[in-house]
Structures are given as C-alpha cells and as structure tokens.
Prior knowledge:
This protein has a single domain (about 1-175), classed as Trna Endonuclease, Chain: A, domain 1, CATH 3.40.1350.10. By secondary structure, the chain is α/β, with parallel strands linked by helices. It contains three helices and eight strands; from the N terminus they run αβββββαβαββ.
Amino acid sequence: MMITKEDLTQAILDLKTSQSKTDEQMKKTDEQMKKTDARLDRVAKLVGNISNNQGDIAEEFFWNTISSSPILNGIKYDSSHKNAHKRIGDIEDEYDILMVNGKDIAIIEVKYKAHTKDIKRLINEKYTNFKKLYLEYKNYHHHLALASFNINDDVKKMAKENNVLLLQRKGDLIETI
C-alpha cells in the first residue's frame, strides 16, 4: 500500500488537531490541579490551627493550675516561668513551664495528647539543651515532667522507666502519676 502525499498531509493535520485537543485538556487539568492545591493548602492550614489551638488550651490549663498551686510531686516551688526561651550560640530551645525553688527545677513539657516520642524528645533534646542553656541550675535537682490531657499506657510505662513525672488533668485539677 502506497501512502500518498495527500494521505500524509491529512495524517499530519489530524495529528495537529489531536495534539491541540490534548493540549487544551492538559491546560484544563493544570487549572483544576491549581484549584485543588489551593483547597488542600487551606485545609492543611485549618488542621494545623486546630492542632495549635488544642496545644494552647493544654498549655493554658496546666499553666493556670501549676502557677496557682506551685507544688509538684510534694516539692514546693517559689516561682513558675511560662514559655521560657533561651539561645546561646547555635543552641536554642523553649520550655513550656519551668518551676524553681532554691534547690529544685522542674522542666515541664505540655502536650494535648502525649506520645512516647514526646518523652524521648524531652529527655534526648529538650533536657540536653536545658543543661547547656541554663548553667545556673547545674547544681539543682532536675525534675522532668510531661503534662497532657491524654496519656496512654505506653507513655506511662516509658515515663516510669525514665523517671519522668506525668501530669494529667483530673477534673479541674491535675494529679501526679
């Protein structure tokens, strides 16, 4: 079968038409994807805000409770500090709540829902940084605590194994576990 010049010309025209339709469809798909991406960005921001709000609620609850009754695990503290932030060189950290007396300091991390990774982070990162950032407390007894509205059994077990106090809401109060 012989392909004529006219057949070849028609095939090229058909291919151009088909390519134009494909290009138009791709353009519409790209526009729809941009709209979908914008929606996903708004949803992600909303979910992030909800999570931050829950964290803020937990921090406010524990701060109000601890600062009004500065006794933790039988130790009375003279002062409480909220969102203590410090930087020395390239080491920087923030601590949700610090409680201090003349010989003890409690380092309290607050989470809406506690996970074992929070205890690991408290011990391995936050406390390690604390010892470098707050040299004025090096001779104090250091007490690590994790405060949360929700604490599962794995967290309780890990906290006990690592001598980390757990603070949990009990009605309008907190209790030490």
